Amino acid sequence: MFNQYQWELYLNAGGKDIVNMFERNLTEEFTEEYINKIVEFHKSYCPSKNITDIIENDLYSILEGYGIDTCANLKELKSLIKNEIYKQNISDKTLFEEFSAGISYYTTLLAYNSDFDLIPYYFKYNFNVSEKICIEFEIDIPNIPIKKDYIGRYNYYEELCKSFLIFRQNNNMTAFEFLAFLYDYAPKLVGGTDYIINTLPEPKSAFFIGAQRNDAFFSTNKNWITPWQCNAETRAGDLLVMYMRYPDSCVNSVWRSVSLGFNDPFFEYYRCAYISNSTEFAPFSKTDMEKDSVFKDLPIVRKNMQGVNGVELSPSQYNHLVEITKADVPKLEYTVINNDVAFTREKDVENKLIIPLIEKLDYNSDDWIPQMQISIGNHNTTLIPDFVILPNHKEKKAFAIIEAKLTIQNKKELSIVRDQAKSYARQLLAEYCIIASKEKIWIYSNIDNNDYIDEVFSASWEELNNADCFQRIYKKIGKC
């Protein structure tokens, strides 16, 4: 929520200088001062050097004379952009891709020529940050178009600017005050780069990703942090097997997802996660894969590794890769207990038991999220429960959390898991703390402020097939 008193404190503590910087450079003379400040701001909420470099280069293109004074109005500028980029009939996809690639360049020009009803957009591949700002300050976020709606995604920029304009007018801000708010004040208040998770949870899945040596987003630096196209199911901590395209044509490293995945309407591939912590190993070539007893039958191998980004490997396939390459990376546990071949990993418990139960309890896809980042204190610690039911992002609360485990076979194991789950539930002031394994589900309540001591329900999954038993759990945690 916007706090006028805190905003005034910011303005009086140097914020007015930032406001004047925006006004001076966007109405009088566009200078290197502006570029240096935008780079400084960008580093405070984006850990990716390559993205900062792209934005810096785009702004230097403007400084060097590519368009800041080329046209007198917005309509003329839009026409100029299209005519400069496209010399023939083009598809909506091509239009969107070009706008996405140069979004900081084009939106700076659009802002300059629109009386600042439109704004420069410097959240390239960081829609998660702009979304977090909107949630924190109660700015209405337009519905994000679907991935294949390229013209909708191209026009989404203007829709977002309309929401920003309403917020600015409601809070009596000038255009330049709003820019100081959006790029200096707000990112710091919502935590800057704290969406990057330093202490990663255990991996639950493995996916292929692909690159070439000369990709701007690729590096052999182990600590390199960069956005990447990801599978919709990618979660923080997941394992990402890097396939190096021609001429390497091999897998040679495993990376980790270091953020929650998010949809970014301006990111070409739509679904995005930040990755880092690469571990290289001896190359395992495409030719080797085509001969290997496990990999030769993978559809992606038969497709010559085309469309590799986001293709999931089963635990056995991934673990086989680790074994044959002797890579010093985590394995995905592939344990069969009591000959229960249907449940070999936590993800099976999530997909085959927990999610179907959530749906049977009448929650729709908007009522729950897999993983919710919880910052503690000064953002030094981050907790991530497996499922959060009825999350309230504004108040950082939830109705219930669910912690998933593959198996819990005794009271000691249950006690350890309950302590972990309780820490999540406490932070979100949840009414219910729920634990689920392939054997059973346990529910603890905090309704009487008893710190989730009392078990208010437990049952095996077979018992839940009994109508009377299911009615009991529905009365406890079903959607009203």
Instruction: Report the β-strand fraction as a percent range.
Output: 15-25%
The dominant shape is: globular
Helix and strand sequence = HHHHHHHHHEEEEEEHHEHHEEEEEHEEEH
Number of alpha- plus pi-helical segments: 15
- Derived from helix and strand composition plus strand pairing, the structural class reads alpha+beta
Radius of gyration: 25 Å
Helicity range of the residues?
40-55%
| Arithmetic mean pLDDT | 89
Characterize the largest beta sheet: strand count, sense, and whether it forms a barrel: 7 strands, mixed
Give start-end ranges of low-pLDDT stretches: 67-75, 334-339
By DSSP, the count of extended strands is 15
End-to-end Cα distance, whole Å, is: 28 Å
Keywords:
480 residues, alpha+beta, seven-stranded mixed β-sheet, six-stranded mixed β-sheet, 15 helices, 15 strands
Description:
By secondary structure, the protein is of the alpha+beta class. It contains 15 helices and 15 strands. Strand 13 and strand 14 form a beta hairpin.
Per-chain topology:
Layout: H1 4-27, H2 32-45, H3 49-63, H4 74-85, H5 92-101, H6 103-112, H7 127-136, H8 150-170, H9 175-189, E1 206-211, E2 226-229, E3 239-244, E4 250-257, E5 262-263, E6 271-285, H10 286-291, H11 299-302, E7 312-313, H12 315-325, H13 346-360, E8 368-370, E9 374-376, E10 381-383, E11 387-389, E12 400-404, H14 411-427, E13 432-436, E14 440-445, E15 455-460, H15 467-477
Parallel strand pairs: 1-3, 12-13
Antiparallel strand pairs: 1-7, 2-6, 3-4, 4-6, 5-6, 8-11, 9-10, 11-12, 13-14, 14-15
Helix pairs in contact: 1-9, 2-3, 2-9, 3-6, 4-6, 5-8
